[in-house]
Amino acid sequence: MSERIFIGVAWPYADGPLHLGQIAGAYLPPDIFARYHRTKGNEVLMVSGSDQHGTPITIKAEQEGKKPSEIANDYHQQFLDSWQKLGISFDLFTTTGTANHAEVTQDIFLTLLDRGHIYRATVSLPFCPQCQRFLPDRYIEGTCPHCGFSGTRGDQCDACGKPLNTAELIDPHCRLCGTTPQFKDSEHFFLKLSAFRDRLLAWVRQQTHWRRNVLNFTVRYLEEGLKDRAITRDIDWGVPVPVSGFGAKRIYVWFEAVIGYLSAAKEWAKSSGDEEKWRSFWQGEVKSYYFIGKDNIPFHTIIWPAMLMGYDDLNLPYDVPANEFLTIEGRKLSTSRNWAVWLPDYLSRYDPDPLRYLLSVNMPETSDTDFSWREFIRRNNDELVATYGNLVHRVLTFVYRSFDGCVPHYDQIDARGKALESTAYALLNDVGKLLSDCHFKQAIMEAMSLAHETNRYLDEKSPWKVIKDDPQAAANYLYVALEVISCLKTMLYPFLPFSSQKLHEYLGFKGNVEDDGWQLHLPSPGQELLPPEPLFSKLDEGLVEEETNRLGHG
RNA sequence: GGCAGCGUAGCUCAGUGGUAGAGCAGAGGACUCAUAAGCCUUUGGUCGUGGGUUCAAAUCCCUCCGCUGCCA
Question: What is the ipTM score, two decimals?
């Protein structure tokens, strides 16, 4: 019986390249999850896109003398390239800049307005008399009241890290022209979040399968009470407010970006030729998963569900497996100080699977974890190359040479061989269960344990000795080893899709690993093998220093 | 400042009431098909601090310290 799975992935902000923190937290986990479900034979729709709106992009555009859309489009192309190289298998990765997205956003806006979930109110906001425009938080600079730093922006002080209100800034001035802002009335729309509190709380309390930090955080947040939030801004970059008299305002990004999950599903349906197909992933028997970093929790467990409750009969999230953060060489990641490993840089120098491996085995599922180059190279050399890659290579090269490049004909499997087969079957099930429960780290460790066990099996059976006197016994032993390697290929496929596909082909199979299903796919005796090559390469330890030196510069 | 999560072996991390775990690093050994890989044995921790509950606590409760995130 096939299940249907909707996977929403956090929308990366298109104002800079992706870094490993984002990959470990929000992008690799859903891909592993999606690949597992597809292999299992389930229907998957995995969508996301670039978030093109918001003030960081307009500021960057003004600084670089470009249009916001140029900046956003450049990074969007870079994201697409990164997904392809890293193997992040979106069914659709779109942007918030499409006409479709604006249409869906405005429809939700108007529906919520019509039903009384959105109301108007006038607020007093900073306005620059010189530029003749309202100033969003980030357009105002001043002196931090906490630490005295003079380049503090309106939302948070970069020097001491404290968040603050624009009104608290000492000597505030417009970031563009330096003029002191005045306060001026402006009418805005507010989402009546407070009215959803009780419904949300009742719903959230039933989600006992959520990760503890996600559940506790959300419950406490709701128990403290919700404030209505403004969902429009006095800017000209974003989705227009579909109400007359609001031509100079736009819908605020936090309201609009989450709608992307729905608009992307609709765009995907349109391009598939069946406009109504999106419904099969939004209504009825389908589980929706949202993969995000911990900073995004309230938007996905409170605000987006509230919007969905107010809008229509669409499914609420089934699970929001938010990850914690990745630190780099023991320090908090900082894009402004360039204390980050950028994905395009990584991909220009290394293969995708070693990174996918490290980030899987060291995924920040329950607490922040650390990325270090030493650990990356160590895991690559000692675990991927030595344990798994070498297992595959020692079996394939020995079989290839000893049995004319074909899968050997076996005549019987002894008790030890049968025990190993059962272990493989059991692990395949266990790993599948762990993956469907979003326990990625444990899943990959269990999968790797089969490689260890198979290395032990080979050492016990020593087919390289046995073959001298009893070639048939060696054939029997090696056949079991080939079976188990084929099983490893399937179990590790969600994590290491590129090398699994290679192994699939070395074993003489055609087509894609995914098409063969989440099951032990037995090599047929006589099946021709491809000349084997190592699956992974060792990395020089000197790279540790080389890569570490790149951090913090530029 | 409020809320949530985390703080376990030299390092990276598992482990939510019942005799402290894995991998790597360190020490020793047998083997040699394989990318000098793999396999076996082994050293190593008063589970951040101080209290409490319990026959029993890394695990539950409280204090404090530190880290991360959200909010003011």
Answer: 0.93
- Whether nucleic acid strand B comes within 7 Å of the CB of A195, the answer is no
Quick one: pLDDT band at residue A84, thresholds 50, 70, 90?
Answer: very high
We report the CATH number of the domain holding residue A290 as 3.40.50.620
For residue A299, pLDDT over 90 is answered with yes
Average pLDDT, chain A: 92
Quick one: which H or E segment has residue A233? Answer: strand A232-233
Do A307 and A446 share a domain, yes or no? no
Give the global pTM: 0.95
Q: How confident is the model at residue A311 (pLDDT cuts 50, 70, 90)?
A: very high
What is the CA A106 to C1' B10 distance in angstroms? 58
Residue A365 CA distance to nucleotide B63 C1' (Å): 29
Same domain, A315 and A365: no
Query: SS in 3 state form for A353-422?
Result: HHHHHHHHHCCCCCCCEEECHHHHHHHHHHHHHHHHHHHHHHHHHHHHHHCCCECCCCCCCCHHHHHHHH
Count: domains in chain A: 2
A347-to-A14, A34, A161, A325, A350 alpha-carbon distances in Å = 19, 22, 32, 21, 5
Residue A164 included in any domain: no
Whether A181 is in a domain gets the answer no
Which nucleotides along chain B are within 7 A of a protein C-beta? 3-7, 11-16, 23-25, 31-35, 37-40, 67-72
The nt closest to A214 (CA vs C1′) is: B4
Distance, CA of A366 to C1' of B16, in Å: 13
- Give yes or no for CB of A521 within 7 Å of strand B: no
The answer to the question of residue A219 being in a domain is yes
Q: Can you give the residue range of the structural domain that contains A452?
A: 346-516
C1' (B34) to CA (A282) span, angstroms: 50
Chain A residues 326 to 365 with C-beta below 7 Å from nucleic strand B: 327, 330, 332, 362, 365
In 3D, which of A217, A200, A242 has the Cα closest to residue A108? A242
Q: Do A9 and A95 belong to one domain?
A: yes
Two structure tokens written together for A335 = 């894009």
Q: What is the pLDDT of residues A17-66, one digit of tens each?
A: 999 999 999 999 999 999 999 999 999 999 999 999 988 899 889 889 99
CATH number of residue A479's parent domain:
1.10.730.10
Are A1 and A96 contained in the same domain? yes
Q: Are residues A2 and A75 part of one domain?
A: yes
Query: For strand B, is any atom closer than 7 Å to the CB of A230?
Result: no
Q: What is the pLDDT of residue A333?
A: 86
